[in-house]
């Protein structure tokens, strides 16, 4: 029974990975006007949330925004909308790597394989994604590949942390049950 549940979980994770891959492809195939419209919508939503929670005036937000602008663009003179666009790149590939790592870990039970594939598969796809954008009147950018790969690295790292945390919790519960006997 446990083996069947694990197979279903693994298959489900790989289906979610394929869905996420399709989502990235969908965003990649939008023309420049629609892509800009999507980022402007995200910008307006974030501005609305900021007007409610006022997070952009905090010292932490200002520091993070300044660092991201320096890392991603080499200057702080970049509009907030560009930071949102690049954050979307980072986020999409963070989730992609997280899902890939989880899927391969449930399948192979190897931290090394799941971590390596969690980083390399999304990073390789990022290269093809940027190349694909040329066919939709959008430019391709090595900087975007670097941002995507950075997201993949941290997503893979985060999945390893989550898996190790879950294994530790499982072990502690087993030890507690053993001590109660």
UniProtKB/TrEMBL annotation:
<feature type="transmembrane region" description="Helical">
    <location>
        <begin position="151"/>
        <end position="169"/>
    </location>
</feature>
<dbReference type="InterPro" id="IPR006976">
    <property type="entry name" value="VanZ-like"/>
</dbReference>
<keyword id="KW-0812">Transmembrane</keyword>
<feature type="transmembrane region" description="Helical">
    <location>
        <begin position="90"/>
        <end position="107"/>
    </location>
</feature>
<keyword id="KW-0472">Membrane</keyword>
<feature type="domain" description="VanZ-like">
    <location>
        <begin position="15"/>
        <end position="160"/>
    </location>
</feature>
<protein>
    <submittedName>
        <fullName>VanZ like family protein</fullName>
    </submittedName>
</protein>
<keyword id="KW-1133">Transmembrane helix</keyword>
<dbReference type="Pfam" id="PF04892">
    <property type="entry name" value="VanZ"/>
</dbReference>
<feature type="transmembrane region" description="Helical">
    <location>
        <begin position="6"/>
        <end position="27"/>
    </location>
</feature>
């Amino acid at each position: 029974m446990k083996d069947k549940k694990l197979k279903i979980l693994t298959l489900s994770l790989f289906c979610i990975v394929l869905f996420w891959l399709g989502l990235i492809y969908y965003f990649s195939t939008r023309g420049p006007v629609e892509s800009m419209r999507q980022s402007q919508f995200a910008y307006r939503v974030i501005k609305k949330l900021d007007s409610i929670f006022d997070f952009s005036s905090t010292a932490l937000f200002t520091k993070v925004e300044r660092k991201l602008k320096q890392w991603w663009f080499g200057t702080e003179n970049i509009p907030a909308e560009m930071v949102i666009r690049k954050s979307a790149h980072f986020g999409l590939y963070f989730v992609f790597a997280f899902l890939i790592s989880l899927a391969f870990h449930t399948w192979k039970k190897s931290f090394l394989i799941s971590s390596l594939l969690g980083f390399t598969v999304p990073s390789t796809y990022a290269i093809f994604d940027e190349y694909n954008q040329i066919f939709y009147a959008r430019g391709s950018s090595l900087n975007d590949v670097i941002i995507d790969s950075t997201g993949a690295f941290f997503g893979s790292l985060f999945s390893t942390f989550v898996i190790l945390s879950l294994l530790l919790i499982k072990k502690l519960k087993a030890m507690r049950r053993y001590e109660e006997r």
